[in-house]
């Protein structure tokens, strides 16, 4: 494992009797893209604020870029908070340059960097516009650019995708990949699993302030069994006798369609075994789907009913 | 330091770039100048007022008429005094003694101290014509000619059909429509509203009150001369009539006792010279000049100016923090700067904005004084010159900065705890009241700058900037100067430190402002 840019040791935060974050341990390797996943109120933002030393942990230790406090290395960190806000009266390029200068860049370099970023991410024509005249998505992109303009080693983005339309979500994904290709470490939090799935080398799954899982996406997928979706009016109860089948549960069906079933299969089993059995038993199939379990499935599986709210979002 | 400077500069630029900032800056001087111009033009245009005089005794008519003429002469005299003050050669306050010296000043002084006697003298010695001739040597060469004011009060003839010999009640009954403004009186072909009726009943001499006669309980007090008017706000006419009537009956009493009226009047105008001298001035310069008087009062001006400056910074401090809080911008900043850097940056930036406002006000004042030349403005220019040349300015700068540092920390902390200006207002009240206390007692402090009460109060840090500024001209004991300054600086550091803590806690806070107990917990919390 590469050298960790960030490590948390038993970090907790309590407010009175309420425990927002409960003994989290974490190592984030340099150059990785790391996702903080979890439902709303899971403690993602609190953890991020503790990492940045905006709030202090009640107990535990944070080590960031080799320092105890992020304030000591704040020029090497970029941050996009969950609550996004900008100086409404400032012009786009001046604002990006201002934040870059707060992070130690000289005026000339900061202004130059602002221009480059605006050009690269298609916002150059708005460089002279006031923030208040921008759409929400656009000002959010500007804020992300302001967070990375000083080329920090570590970039922490809290819910960077919320409020963006699909096109802009893609632009942002591209930006995160660019940062990663550039050797910069990116941590972002989200409750939309698809982004994490596409971008992250590793993820932390946090629910109710507790760590449920951390590791690679593949490791996360391995946590739950693979599954096959069947749509049929026939009787599939015989499948249960196959060695490769772990469990069969009814799945949500479209109105008017035939019943759907989720067939979970063992790690060494082949999905073809299911198909073969159906042919052999003359079960009429109107649908057969096999896919690797998605992070969403993992999430639903691990988080359980609490995740229901997330799926609706 | 670099970060603080950057934050300060951004705050400043954001403020001065808004239109509202400059509108706010220009509004106050425009209002002050506007009010000044309106007042001086209002003073010149007083409407003509018609009155009716019905004297059933037949012996007081002349007195009342002369009283009204005297009132007019008083106006002439007053205008003449103003004219004299505006146009006299000697306008230098340093050379103008606090007590009267020249003949012109004697006249001004006479009017101030004994108006009736001065008026009589004025009329007896030839009135305006003589006065103008006498004052000519004291006037500037380029003085404009004197213009007499218009007569304010003109007598109207009794309307037809009114029986002036009837009972007072009947007369009033007949004249009521005129007094109520329903009918108008005719004077020399013009129609006008009746302003007042002076009715002197036939039996008025029997109603004169004399000392030693106690009023009989249960018996109505005598009415005497009746003055009827809907307008009771303009006291000039009734006052003049009452004064003259009293003078008349007193003169008669003097005469009937065999006393010489002229002699009495002359005695009343005798005067002992009285000079105010300053023991700290060098020999030959002990006479207290007007300038010295101004110097003594200058600290008051500084205190008020300081209060004004602080009050208008308060607004910036609060709205700025609250706006940033509601814009959700603070968290981004906090990842880049420490709360203390943010606090300091804001204090400096907003302080700079306030200084700009003050500078703009002073500049407008300067321009106004330069382009609008009159006796008042030239006096103001001199007063400013006197004040600026005194050794109070460094103290003013010190106390102003210290006061700003002390209070701005508190206001920023309040701003950080509130999400709306409305919430902030409730928390501001105790602080504003604390600021008001030393400002309200300012006039009393000038009278007794080193009194033990004010010496004690000066040691209370929130009062120190105002009270010590106020006392600065009176050579306060060194222990007060040094001690209070040290205590003030110490409390500035304490307030900054505490405010820094509250600020840090408040920045990320949402929801209602905290209660006192919660605030104390914030101060104790590590982060």
Descriptive account of the structure:
The complex is a heterodimer of chains A (313) and B (527). Chain A has 10 helices and 13 strands. Chain A has 313 residues and is α/β, with parallel strands linked by helices. Chain A folds into 2 domains: 213 residues, P-loop containing nucleotide triphosphate hydrolases (Rossmann fold), CATH 3.40.50.300; 68 residues, ACT domain (Alpha-Beta Plaits). In chain A, the strands form 3 sheets. A 6-stranded mixed sheet of chain A has the order 5-6-7-3-8-9, sandwiched between helices. A 4-stranded antiparallel sheet of chain A has the order 11-12-10-13, with helices on one face. In chain A, α2 packs across α3 and α2 packs parallel to α4. The C terminus of chain A is likely disordered. With 527 residues, chain B is mainly alpha-helical. Chain B has 2 domains: 212 residues, no CATH class; 205 residues, no CATH class. Chain B has 20 helices and 6 strands. In chain B, strands 2-1-5-6 form a 4-stranded mixed sheet, with helices on both faces. The chains are: A alpha/beta (313), B mainly alpha (527).
């Amino acid at each position: 494992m590469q050298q960790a840019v960030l490590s948390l040791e038993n970090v907790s935060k309590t407010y009175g009797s309420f425990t927002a974050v409960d003994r989290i341990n974490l190592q984030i390797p340099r150059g990785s893209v790391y996702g903080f996943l979890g439902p709303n109120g899971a403690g993602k933002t609190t953890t991020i604020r503790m990492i940045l030393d905006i709030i202090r942990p009640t107990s535990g230790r944070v080590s960031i870029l080799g320092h105890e406090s992020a304030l000591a290395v704040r020029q090497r960190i970029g941050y996009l908070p969950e609550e996004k806000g900008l100086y409404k009266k400032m012009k786009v390029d001046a604002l990006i340059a201002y934040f870059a200068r707060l992070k130690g860049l000289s005026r000339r370099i900061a202004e130059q960097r602002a221009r480059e970023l605006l050009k690269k991410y298609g916002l150059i024509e708005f460089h002279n516009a006031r923030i208040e005249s921008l759409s929400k998505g656009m000002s959010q992109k500007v804020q992300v650019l302001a967070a990375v303009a000083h080329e920090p080693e570590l970039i922490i983005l809290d819910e960077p995708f919320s409020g963006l339309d699909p096109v802009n979500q893609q632009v942002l994904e591209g930006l995160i990949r660019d940062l990663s290709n550039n050797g910069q470490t990116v941590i972002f939090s989200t409750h939309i699993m698809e982004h994490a799935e596409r971008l992250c080398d590793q993820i932390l799954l946090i629910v109710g302030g507790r760590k449920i899982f951390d590791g690679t996406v593949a490791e996360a997928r391995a946590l739950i069994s693979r599954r096959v979706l069947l749509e049929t009016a026939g009787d599939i109860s015989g499948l249960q006798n196959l060695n490769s089948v772990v469990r069969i549960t009814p799945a949500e069906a479209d109105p008017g369609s035939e019943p759907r079933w989720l067939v979970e299969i063992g790690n060494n089993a082949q999905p073809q075994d299911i198909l073969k059995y159906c042919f052999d038993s003359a079960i009429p199939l109107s649908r057969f789907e096999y896919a690797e379990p998605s992070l969403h499935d993992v999430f639903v599986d691990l988080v359980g009913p609490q995740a229901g709210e997330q799926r609706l979002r | 330091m670099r970060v603080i400077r950057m934050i300060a500069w951004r705050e400043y630029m954001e403020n001065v770039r808004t239109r509202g900032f400059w509108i706010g800056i220009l509004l106050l001087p425009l209002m002050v100048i506007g009010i000044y111009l309106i007042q001086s033009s209002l003073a010149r245009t007083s409407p003509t007022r018609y009155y009716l005089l019905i004297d059933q005794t037949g012996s007081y008519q002349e007195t009342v008429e002369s009283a009204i003429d005297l009132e007019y002469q008083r106006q002439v005299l007053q205008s003449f005094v103003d004219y004299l003050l505006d146009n006299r050669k000697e306008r230098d306050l340093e050379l103008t003694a606090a007590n009267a010296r020249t003949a012109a000043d004697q006249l001004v002084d006479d009017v101030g101290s004994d108006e009736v006697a001065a008026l009589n003298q004025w009329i007896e010695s030839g009135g305006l014509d003589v006065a103008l001739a006498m004052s000519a040597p004291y006037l500037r060469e380029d003085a404009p000619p004197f213009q007499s004011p218009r007569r304010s009060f003109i007598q109207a003839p009794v309307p037809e059909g009114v029986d002036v010999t009837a009972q007072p009640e009947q007369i009033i009954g007949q004249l009521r429509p005129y007094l109520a403004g329903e009918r108008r009186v005719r004077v020399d072909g013009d129609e006008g509203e009746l302003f007042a009726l002076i009715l002197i009943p036939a039996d008025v001499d029997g109603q004169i009150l004399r000392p030693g006669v106690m009023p009989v309980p249960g018996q109505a007090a005598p009415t005497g001369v009746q003055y009827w008017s809907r307008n009771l706000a303009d006291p000039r006419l009734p006052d003049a009539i009452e004064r003259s009537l009293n003078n008349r009956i007193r003169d008669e009493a003097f005469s009937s006792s065999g006393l010489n009226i002229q002699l009495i009047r002359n005695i009343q105008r005798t005067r002992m010279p009285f000079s105010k001298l300053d023991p700290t001035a060098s020999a030959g310069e002990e006479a207290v000049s007007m300038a010295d008087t101004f110097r003594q009062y200058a600290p008051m001006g500084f205190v008020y100016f300081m209060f004004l400056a602080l009050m208008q910074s308060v607004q910036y401090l609060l709205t700025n923090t609250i706006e940033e809080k509601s814009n959700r911008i603070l968290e981004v900043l906090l990842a880049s700067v420490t709360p203390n850097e943010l606090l300091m940056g804001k204090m400096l930036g907003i302080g700079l904005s306030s200084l700009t406002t003050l500078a703009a006000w002073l500049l407008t004042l300067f321009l106004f004084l330069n382009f609008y030349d009159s006796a008042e403005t030239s006096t103001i220019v001199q007063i400013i010159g006197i004040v600026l040349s005194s050794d109070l300015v460094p103290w003013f700068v010190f106390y102003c900065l210290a006061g700003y540092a002390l209070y701005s920390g508190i206001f920023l902390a309040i701003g950080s705890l509130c999400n709306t200006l409305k919430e902030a207002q409730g928390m501001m009240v105790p602080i504003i009241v604390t600021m008001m206390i030393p400002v309200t007692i300012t006039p009393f402090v000038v009278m007794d700058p080193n009194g033990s009460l004010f010496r004690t109060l000066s040691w209370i840090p929130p009062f120190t900037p105002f009270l010590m500024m106020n006392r600065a001209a009176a050579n306060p004991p060194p222990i007060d100067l040094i001690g209070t300054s040290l205590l003030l600086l110490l409390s500035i550091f304490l307030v900054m430190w505490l405010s820094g803590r509250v600020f840090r806690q408040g920045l990320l806070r949402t929801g209602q402002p905290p209660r006192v107990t919660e605030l104390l917990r914030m101060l104790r919390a590590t982060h």
